Amino acid sequence: MNPRPSPDDGLSPADLAAKYGLSVSGARPSLPAYVRQLWDRRHFILAFSRAKLTAQYSQAKLGQLWQVTTPLLNATVYFFIFGLLLGGRGGMEMEDYIPFLVTGVFVFTFTQSSVMSGVRSISGNLGLVRALHFPRASLPISFSLQQLQQLLFSMIVLAVVLIGFGHFPMWSWLLVVPALLLQFVFNSGLAMIMARMGSATPDLAQLMPFVTRTWMYASGVMFPLGYMLDKRESIPGWVADVMLANPAAVYMDLMRYALIDNYGVENLPVQSLVWAVSLGVGWALLIGIGGFVYFWKAEERYGRG
Amino acid sequence: MAVAEHTESTRSETPPQDTAEARVPTVIADDLHIVYKVNGGPRGRGSATAALNRMLRRKAPAGMREVHAVRGVSFTAYKGEAIGLIGSNGSGKSTLLKAVAGLLPAERGHVYTNGQPSLLGVNAALMNDLTGERNVILGGLAMGMSREQIRERYQSIVDFSGINEKGDFITLPMRTYSSGMAARLRFSIAAAKDHDVLMIDEALATGDRKFQKRSEARIRELRKEAGTVFLVSHNNKSIRDTCERVLWLEKGELVMDGPTDEVIKAYEKEAGK
Question: Could you give the CA distance from residue A284 to residue B57 in angstroms, rounded to a whole number?
Answer without folding.
Answer: 32
